[in-house]
Amino acid sequence: MEGHPIAMPLFLLPPFWIAFIHFNRLQYNSCMHELAITESILNIAQKHGTQAQAAKVTDIYLVIGQLSSIIDDSVQFYWDIVSADTLCEGAKLHFQRISAEIVCQDCANRYTIEKRLTPCPICSSHNVQIAAGDEFFLESIEILHKSDIQE
């Protein structure tokens, strides 16, 4: 476990600290995993575009939670590279960010956070659970059908 600040099994930590470690660990991975994520977005969009007999995918709509480690600019950078010479080349990526919502497990207070996980502002409990803000998915794509293209 060299190089890791915590050598304790996660199941021994309170839920707040597990989420805190998870969130902060994601910050260190910065841009490296965006390439794999962007390739997955491309594969999904191409699959559905091909199934719909598209001549071209024009727009891709992504939903990304605030606590997700996805960096929009990095995805866009890699997109321009990996989508070259594909059905999706030139498609515009649309990013919708979802705010992080936390629920206190002790007093049931639901609150939003800005950047870091925080204890409950009502009862100061660390027994909290992420209710929203850690999601990431491709919501929809827009395509041009072959019949829509004028020759």
Radius of gyration: 20 Å
What is the name of the CATH topology? hypothetical protein PF0899 fold
Q: How is the biggest beta sheet arranged? A: 3 strands, mixed
Strand order of the largest sheet: 2-1-6
- CATH class, please? Alpha Beta
Note the quaternary state here: single chain
Provide key terms for this protein.
alpha+beta; hypothetical protein PF0899 fold; three-stranded mixed beta sheet; disordered N terminus; 151 residues
SSE order and pairing:
Layout: H1 15-28, H2 32-51, E1 54-65, H3 72-82, E2 92-98, E3 100-104, E4 110-113, E5 128-132, E6 136-145
If you had to describe this structure to a student in words, what would you say it looks like?
This protein is elongated. It is α+β, with helices and mostly antiparallel strands and 151 residues long. It starts with 14 loop residues before the first helix and ends in a 6-residue tail after the last strand. The protein is built from 3 helices and 6 strands; from the N terminus they run ααβαβββββ. Helix 2 crosses helix 3. A 3-stranded mixed sheet has the order 2-1-6. Strands 4-3-5 form a 3-stranded antiparallel sheet.
